[in-house]
Amino acid sequence: MVVPKAKVPDVLQLYHSGCSGDHLGVKRNLLKIQERFYWVHCRDDVADWCRKCAICAAVKGPQIRSRCALKLYNVGTPWERIAIDVAGPFPESESGNKYFMVVMDYFTMWPEVFAIPNQEASTVADKLVHEIFCRFGVPLEIHNDQGRNFESQIFQETCRVMGTHKTRTTSYHPQSDGMVERFNQTLERYVLSFKLNGMDRSGI
C-alpha cells in the first residue's frame, strides 16, 4: 500500500511507538513497515524517526559499540548447553509477577522468557522443569551465575535428578555469562520503554 506523505508520521508512530512497535531499531522497524507499506525515502524516514525518539534515547543511550574479549563455547547441537538467569525486579504486574526467568540456548541463541512472582529457588526450579524440560527435553549442561537461587540445594538437586551438568560463572570471569546478560539488558530496555510509553502490561 502506498502511503501519502501526510500519513507517514502516523505509520511511523504506530510501528515504532505503538502497541506493535516495541521501540525496535531501524532495521526491524523497516522490515515490519515494508511488509505492508511503501513510500519514497521510507528508509530515511524510519531512521530519522528512530533517531529522534525521546524514549529510545532515554532507555538505550548512545549507540556506541565497544569490542571486548568473548569466551567461546564449543557446542555442536541445539540444546547441548543452555544458560539461565533471572532479570528484575520490575514493577509488580496485576498478576503478581516482578521478575523474568530467561533461558537461552548457546547453539541457536533462542531465548525463552517467563514472568515469575519471585526468584526463589523453588520457583525457578519448578518453571525450569515444567516449562523448559517438559517442552524441549533436558540439556547436557546448564550454565548460570552465582545467584543464591542457582546455588541452592533444591536447584542443584533438580539438575542432578534430571541428569544435567550444572556450571556457573566465576568471580574472575563474569563475562562468561555474557550472552544471557546481554539479552537481559535488551529485555529491561523494552520493559522500561513500555513503562515510559504508558502502556499497560497487566497480563504479564
UniProtKB/TrEMBL annotation:
Highest taxon, organism lineage: Eukaryota
PROSITE patterns, alphabetized: INTEGRASE
SUPFAM superfamilies: Ribonuclease H-like
Ranges where the Integrase catalytic domain occurs: 74-204
Coiled-coil positions: none
InterPro entries linked to this entry: Integrase_cat-core (IPR001584), Integrase_H2C2 (IPR041588), Retrovirus_Pol_polyprotein (IPR050951), RNaseH-like_sf (IPR012337), RNaseH_sf (IPR036397)
EC number(s) stated in the UniProt entry for this protein: 2.7.7.49
Single GO biological process annotation from the record: DNA integration
GO molecular function: nucleic acid binding; RNA-directed DNA polymerase activity
Protein name according to UniProt: RNA-directed DNA polymerase
The organism of origin for this protein: Parnassius mnemosyne (clouded apollo)
